[in-house]
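Render Trifunctional enzyme subunit beta, mitochondrial in 3D.
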Amino acid sequence: MTSILTYTLKNLSSPSKRALRFSVRPLSCSSQLRTAPAVQTKSKKTLAKANVRNVVVVDGVRIPFLLSGTSYKDLMAHDLARAALSGLLHRTNVPKEVIDYIVFGTVIQEVKTSNVAREASLGAGFSDKTPAHTVTMACISSNQAMTTAVGLIAAGQSDVVVAGGVELMSDIPIRHSRKMRRMMLDLNKAKTLGQRLSLISKFRLDFLAPELISVSEFSTNETMGHSADRLAAAFSVSRLEQDEYALRSHSLAKKAQDEGLLSDIVPFKVPGKDTVTKDNGIRPSSLEQMAKLKPAFIKPYGTVTAANSSFLTDGASAMLIMAEEKALAMGYKPKAYLRDFLYVSQDPKDQLLLGPTYATPKVLEKAGLTMNDIDVFEFHEAFSGQILANFKAMDSDWFSQNYMGRKTKIGSPPLEKFNKWGGSLSLGHPFGATGCRLVITAANRLQKEGGQYALVAACAAGGQGHAMIVEAYPK
């Protein structure tokens, strides 16, 4: 497949093929921070389907998302997931015995708790009769956990499912080299002293070199940051545009934090330390300060920096998902319906981070909606360049026709509806936990702003993506 970067840059020089060469709308933070009038609830159709169970979100929580290496650094992922589950129990008062199933997403697994959903649920006091499993799908792992819950309920297999996700980047597993591992395994099997001495005689110092977890794509051997840099270049997203967008994210997150809008957070008493009550990665700066940072991946000419990228984050989230009739029978007032969703995948080299562009028109068509019907947009922000490149791809007839097989563009989300309480760039991005944060934020924003439909979308490693329609529960 022809590289997007090569093909785009070659064709941008032609006056007849400049579909991708336009500026992102100005990202004036001051205008974004002004209090917007509440969206008036429109009398739109509901997305309920005949003979299909309505699946609802009763509530969702997360422990504060923290920069890796800070207050959670001495814990295990199991501890964070358990805290999120305990917070959900406390918030909803749901009886533990009514939970039919638990599913969690995670990306970098701790060997001791490979099925972290099961270990965390036992630690949080759930019944040992409640099955639990763990899924992994890169940055959309908890999205997969949620949609697994939707499937179980829609199929009539369960009535009440807890879905969530967790990531602990402060303590990632580092292995011995393959040579050292092989020697240790062979030594364990050796039956005589002679066999052991023979194996030990083959030891070399380079066997001790550790094997770090790779942050690159297995299929391309390229880091996501490199992909973001190339994607920004392909879509002519400038360094200034990226810094402006990052500043917007941090400024909106700080405003939401100060106004108490991040109500999904539950406090977490870290053993031996203080109680953590808020995210610690929200740090509004200035464009002048951001401009001083050097490129993080492609040097010296790249545009992706630490300031316009999401940071390594520790955190966990959990949601109580039910069949509507079960929730009402138990006296709950749900927050939202989980409606149509889908997953997409494309070329992991040149289109690694374009999942939202591919997923958005498909999920809208599946639901019978248009972009104008959406009141709230919540997209995962891996990098500013990734978000802005998706905006440009979504707003390009040329890209739609040449890469997506569509006649016309879908159009990009209006900024006044987009990630108004901050995003992954500012709130943090624990890989396995972000999907649940996106959905509960969308549900809370619908309630706060009086909207009916939200669209949640995210990209993920491997060139994959997810999108879902969330519908506000009637007042």
